[in-house]
Write a structure and sequence with these properties.
It contains six helices and eight strands. Strands 3-7-8 form a three-stranded mixed β-sheet. A three-stranded antiparallel β-sheet has the order 4-5-6. A two-stranded antiparallel ribbon has the order 1-2. A hairpin with an 8-residue loop joins strand 5 and strand 6. Helix 4 packs antiparallel against helix 5.
Amino acid sequence: MANPAWWGGRILGGVLVRDPRTGEPVIGEWDHADEARDGVGRGTWNGIMDGVGAGRARRGLGGAGADTPPGAVAAPPRAYLFSGVLRCGRLNDWGEVCRSKLCGNRATGRNAKYGDYYRCGDPNCRGVGRRVAPVDAFLAGLLLDRLDEHVAGGPPASEVVWRGEGRLSELRRAKREVEGSIVAGEVDWAEVRDLLVRLGRGIESLESERREHLEARAEENLLRGWRREKWDRLTVREKREVIRRVLVSVLVLPVPPGVSDRAPFDPELLSPEWRGGTPPPHAP
């Protein structure tokens, strides 16, 4: 049902083939559903793809593609800043520290009012957990204090031009010209189908390479010229990269015997290990 061919559309490389002049999909000449005649058509498909896009977003798989219809829900997947950095501090049956990673979990049912939580991911342990909000707030404060004290500011690294920009522009121009020839009736679809497929794959490969280049440059500059106010402008992915560069791990100690799980958050039960071996500023 996600294939637009049933209402007359075509997809190449995950993108609808459109008239470059009007932006409207190019409708095929085969028998297909018609909205006026059959009661289903492109509008129905847009509704289907709304659901596809929303489902992929909830599963953290991104949108439905370049042609996700207007109005499609693009809810970002939940992301937890310190998942994988937090380590379980519970002693196992052999007297060893578990040290399994704590992962973020969504709070549901009666526990939803307490907020999302980190929990030890070892199915044989799962003995240590903490609410996300106070852990993130406390550790982010420590992290920013450390960056202020230990990371020297400096100018961003010089810009490096991506070497494939010219080739990408050439392929995009060639694809537009071929599509324009199809719409104008100068060439038959079947004659250039394979060429369009090759052009689409080449564009997709170069665009992926360019994204990797830009991401690598952004990561290089992440801590150059650091200022505290920069933190709030970072994406979750960038914040996690900053955390990875500064923190080795944070040991989450169990709540002491006799203390309720509902007791107020105790920062003394978090033991961070910083890269470089120097103690954190204002450590508990």
